[in-house]
Automatic annotation (TrEMBL):
Any Pfam family hit: Lipase_GDSL
Family: Belongs to the 'GDSL' lipolytic enzyme family.
Record's keyword terms, sorted: Glycoprotein, Hydrolase, Signal
Superkingdom assignment: Eukaryota
Gene Ontology molecular function, alphabetical: hydrolase activity, acting on ester bonds
InterPro entries named in the record: GDSL, SGNH_hydro_sf, SGNH_plant_lipase-like
Protein name: GDSL esterase/lipase At3g26430
Gene name, Swiss-Prot/TrEMBL: LOC113717823
Signal peptide: 1-26
Length: 386
C-alpha cells in the first residue's frame, strides 16, 4: 500500500468514527415519544382495576379532580396519571374495566391490593387482590395478542386498540411490592421472616420483566417502594414500641424492610440490564422523596404528615373498621362518618394507606427530570440505555 492510500483509509475510518459518534449522541438526545404506557402495580397506580372487579371505591374518592369516584384510591390523580399527562397521553384505562375503556395509548393492569407473589387467597380472606403480578402478566399477554386480532378487524373496537409497533415503543411502568411486605406482618411474621422472602419476590419480578421483554417491551420505568412505616394503616395495626419510632414519628422496622426491598430491587434492575441487552431500565427512588416529604412536611407546604385526610378518629385519623367514605345508619338515615378533611391539598396522606393528589404531584414533579433515577435520565428519555 502506498502512503497515500494508507492516508485515505485512515481518513475514511476517521470519518466513519465521527459519523458514528454523531449519530449516537443525536440518538441519545432524541425524546422517546412513547405512544403508549402499560402499567403494572398495586393501589399506588390503580386507575380502576379493583373498582371494576370488586366495586367502586366510593365517595369522597376522586373529589379533588374527577368530581366523583374514578377507580382511584385518592382524592384525585396518581403519579401514573401525571406521567401520562406529561407524555401527552390520556389517563390509562384499567384492563379490567368493561365500561368506556379506550386502549389506544395503553392499558393499566394494576389493582389495589396486588402483590408480586402469586396470591392463593380471595380478597375477602386476606384483603389482598387476587390480581397479583403474575396474573397482570397473563392479562397483558392476552391483551397483546387479542388487541391485534381486534384491531385487524377494524370498526369501533379496532379503533380502541394500540398499534402493533406500540408494544416495543411503549413505556412499561411498575409500582409494586408494598403489599408483599405488609402481608407478612399482617400474618404476624417477624421482620427477619419478612426479609427472608424478599429475594423470592425479586426473582418473580425479574421473571415478569423478562416475559415482557420477550414480547418486545424495551423501556421499563420502575418505582421503588415507599416508607410503609410512615403510613397510618401500618402504624395503627402493628405493634410498635417507643424505641422503634424515629424522629419523624415513623416505625423504623417497617421502613428498614422497605429499604432492604429497594436495595434488592435495585440489584435486580442491575442484573436485568446485563441479561436484557436491548432494554432501558430506569429505577426511580420514590422512597427518598416520600420520606423527605413526610419528614419535612411544613417546609414543603404540607400539614399533619402522619394523619389521614379522610378517616375516622384516633391518633392518625384512621380506623381500620371505618375506612374513608364509611357510612353508618342513624335512625334509618345513612351518614358518612369517615369524611374528607377540609383541604386535601395541604395533606400528604389521603386515607391512611394512600397519598393525596397534592402529594402525588409533589413526588411526580421531582422524578420527572430524572434526578431521583438510576440512571439519571428524564422520563421523556427513558427509552435510551445509558
Ligand atoms: C380513543 O382514544 C383516542 C386517543 O385519545 C381517540 O383519538 C379516540 O377518539 C378514542 N376513541 C373513542 C371511541 O372515544
Ligand atoms: C401461594 O402458594 C405457592 C405454592 O404453594 C407459594 O409458593 C406462594 O408463596 C403462595 N403465595 C402466598 C402469597 O402465600
Ligand atoms: C396475629 O396476632 C394477633 C395478636 O396475637 C392475633 O389476634 C391474630 O389472630 C394473629 N393473626 C394471624 C393471622 O395469625
Amino acid at each position: 500500500m502506498t502512503p497515500d492510500s494508507q492516508r485515505k483509509i485512515f481518513l475514511a475510518a476517521l470519518l466513519l468514527l465521527l459519523v458514528n459518534l454523531l449519530s449516537v449522541s443525536a440518538r441519545s438526545k432524541t425524546p422517546c415519544e412513547f405512544p403508549a404506557i402499560f402499567n403494572f402495580g398495586d393501589s399506588n397506580s390503580d386507575t380502576g382495576g379493583l373498582s371494576a372487579a370488586f366495586g367502586q371505591a366510593g365517595p369522597p374518592h376522586g373529589e379533588s379532580f374527577f368530581h366523583g369516584p374514578a377507580g382511584r384510591y385518592c382524592d384525585g390523580r396518581l403519579i401514573i396519571d401525571f406521567i401520562a399527562e406529561s407524555l401527552g397521553l390520556p389517563y390509562l384505562s384499567a384492563f379490567l374495566d368493561a365500561l368506556g375503556s379506550n386502549f389506544t395509548h395503553g392499558a393499566n393492569f394494576a389493582t389495589a391490593g396486588s402483590t408480586i407473589r402469586p396470591q392463593n387467597t380471595t380478597l375477602q380472606q386476606s384483603g389482598f387482590s387476587p390480581i397479583s403480578l403474575n396474573v397482570q402478566f397473563y392479562q397483558f399477554n392476552d391483551f397483546h395478542r387479542r388487541s391485534q386480532i381486534i384491531r385487524s378487524q377494524g370498526g369501533v373496537f379496532g379503533g380502541l386498540m394500540p398499534e402493533a409497533e406500540d408494544f416495543s415503543r411503549a413505556l412499561y411502568t411498575f409500582d409494586i411490592g408494598q403489599n408483599d411486605l405488609t402481608s407478612g406482618y399482617f400474618l404476624n411474621m417477624t421482620t427477619d421472616e419478612v426479609r427472608a422472602y424478599v429475594p423470592e419476590l425479586l426473582d418473580q419480578f425479574k421473571t415478569i420483566i423478562k416475559g415482557i421483554y420477550d414480547q418486545g417491551g424495551r423501556s421499563f420505568w420502575i418505582h421503588n417502594t415507599g416508607p410503609v412505616g410512615c403510613l397510618p394503616y401500618v402504624m395503627d395495626r402493628l405493634l410498635i414500641t417507643a424505641a422503634q419510632v424515629d424522629e419523624t414519628g415513623c416505625a423504623t422496622p417497617f421502613n428498614d424492610v422497605a429499604q432492604y426491598f429497594n436495595w434488592k430491587l435495585k440489584e435486580a434492575v442491575f442484573q436485568l440490564r446485563k441479561e436484557l441487552p436491548k432494554a432501558a431500565l430506569t429505577y426511580v427512588d420514590i422512597y427518598t422523596l416520600k420520606y423527605d416529604l413526610i419528614s419535612h412536611a411544613r417546609k414543603h407546604g404540607f400539614e399533619h404528615p402522619l394523619r389521614a385526610c379522610c378517616g375516622h378518629g384516633g391518633k392518625y385519623n384512621f380506623n381500620a373498621h371505618f375506612g374513608c367514605g364509611s357510612k353508618i345508619k342513624v335512625k334509618g338515615k345513612e351518614i358518612m362518618i369517615a369524611r374528607s378533611c377540609k383541604d386535601p391539598s395541604v395533606m400528604i396522606n389521603w386515607d391512611g394507606v394512600h397519598y393525596t393528589q397534592a402529594a402525588n404531584k409533589w413526588v411526580f414533579d421531582r422524578i420527572v427530570d430524572g434526578s431521583y433515577s438510576d440512571p439519571v435520565i428524564p422520563l421523556t428519555m427513558a427509552c435510551h440505555r445509558r
